[in-house]
Protein: N5-carboxyaminoimidazole ribonucleotide synthase
Organism: Limimaricola litoreus
Amino acid sequence: MTDALASGSTIGILGGGQLGRMLAVAASRLGLRCHVYDPAPDGPAAEVCAAATCAAWDDEAALRAFASAVDVVTYEFENVPAASLDLIEAIVPIRPGRRALAVSQDRIDEKDFLRDLGLATAPYATVDDAASLEAALERIGAPAILKTRRFGYDGKGQARIMVQGDAAAALAGMNGAPAILEGFVEFSHEVSVIGARGLDGAVACFDPGENRHEDGILRETTVPARLTASQRTDAVLLAARILTALDYVGVMGVELFVTASGLVVNEIAPRVHNSGHWTQNGCLIDQFEQHIRAVAGWPLGDGARHSDVTMENLIGDDVDRIPQIAATQSALHLYGKAEARPGRKMGHVNRLTGPAR
Amino acid sequence: MTDALASGSTIGILGGGQLGRMLAVAASRLGLRCHVYDPAPDGPAAEVCAAATCAAWDDEAALRAFASAVDVVTYEFENVPAASLDLIEAIVPIRPGRRALAVSQDRIDEKDFLRDLGLATAPYATVDDAASLEAALERIGAPAILKTRRFGYDGKGQARIMVQGDAAAALAGMNGAPAILEGFVEFSHEVSVIGARGLDGAVACFDPGENRHEDGILRETTVPARLTASQRTDAVLLAARILTALDYVGVMGVELFVTASGLVVNEIAPRVHNSGHWTQNGCLIDQFEQHIRAVAGWPLGDGARHSDVTMENLIGDDVDRIPQIAATQSALHLYGKAEARPGRKMGHVNRLTGPAR
């Protein structure tokens, strides 16, 4: 632990949502303080952080003061503007590093990176206009899905093209933003691996979880996932290859389609991930602490799971069920958000289903 | 959950040490905010609380502002001055209630209360001067232990009387404070039950842990404790009797001596307890969340344990071992205290020893 941050050091977190909140709580267990930076006031993270800066991403004075007040910077979402990161990085290290952010901020760059690593992805093509969309559909075929290259999450900025005739409307929906056409992948189910890489290069992965989405939003993750032993090994090796290629430091979420011909990478997220929330109650060291350990230069946990878990997201009106859920043997994790809007992640609940199988 | 605090409500915590810190983290999981009150600046709790008041216990304006800013008040230690509590209670409920505090603040009142409930305690007598000490020693015999009636913790304010000749020095050590003489109890080991009672009167207990002390300070708690099935039942029934007699709301620590003739109550603490820290990694709902659930009027967890655990306190210089401990599969819980003084609790570590037996 030569390079490790000592107890009492401060971790800066870019983004003050629920992921930042749970990172801050994990940091407190290691005796570390957190300072959150977010343009929005009163986000979920600030109330469990030692310090909070509420300022715009282009507020250079605020960014400088923030960077000078902390020992290392991490982030809870991948769309922090590059100029803000440049300014911070001149003062203090950012972990995970810029390469991971650059790759995951752009769906084409991400797919190119994965393909260059020899990993399977959905067929894809760049779409800038009607002509390139037509060419892409020619090659990939319908059904396919058109997505903005940047700034998409939870199914936002996406349009399905079931038949050629849907193409014009889908393209219009991109509002002129650079896009990617992705072919559909025939898969039986989706799993994700939450992997981590330490400052010393050590890699540790949690057991893959099986994800079920509704309306493009993660609904449930179940551990263990339905996977053969060799699929399980493949998933871990693949995650390790990605982490190492990026010289990554921190936790990453890797979403995988399980297909008859092997695992296909859906997408990567350079941060703690919703599909890893089960680790809070299934593991001694959860994904949030694992991420903090990595960015603070501490040794990683080994990812061992003591219990099988089902994680359910509480979205929008699901908060009405909290009184019933609270009366059952389940671990609630609420984010302290005042207003429950449709599609808004308000919390999640972990249920143990027995000792780890 | 008719009387339950809604997500976004604020819990006031009197005392800003590590127990307050871990209570605040647990509250965050339920979407609740915390506001800590402590005369000392920069305590462990403030950095994970939404608000902190640093003011003296007799600062009436600060106490009133604090009480007006929160929805309920709880405490992490039992020696909050009664006048401060009077002032707060005129504005907002205090949980656990005043009766539990009064009883546990005074060793004679506590013993009287337990005896009136029909529970076994060490033989004891009030000591105010040399004459009453002589009479007490006459009745109880040596060896015995002389303790201040109030404000003792971790072996402070105590003197052993091995032979009659030690009496004068022991009495001098009390500095004129009212005292209690307690006879020694022949016991094989000490266990503690962490019990909880909800606002609705429901009682839930965690499995008893076995405690090992060094120099009067808890060193290690192991779960499960060495107890027969009937001792286990006795321990739970006895804790429930205490909780109900006090119309208690919250978590209580009950320390018990295991003797050939049954369980003898050593002491009770009207708060989360060091010997319950194992629940953070052995249970889905730990003692801190259980306490928050109780004071917030939520349903209690059932106390179920998924894993066997050994909890080790990290005291003073033990912090030098943190790098080694961090490299093993164990859950560190550090309190963020800057200075490691001898006897100071700096953190603890939970190690899982297998699925619950």
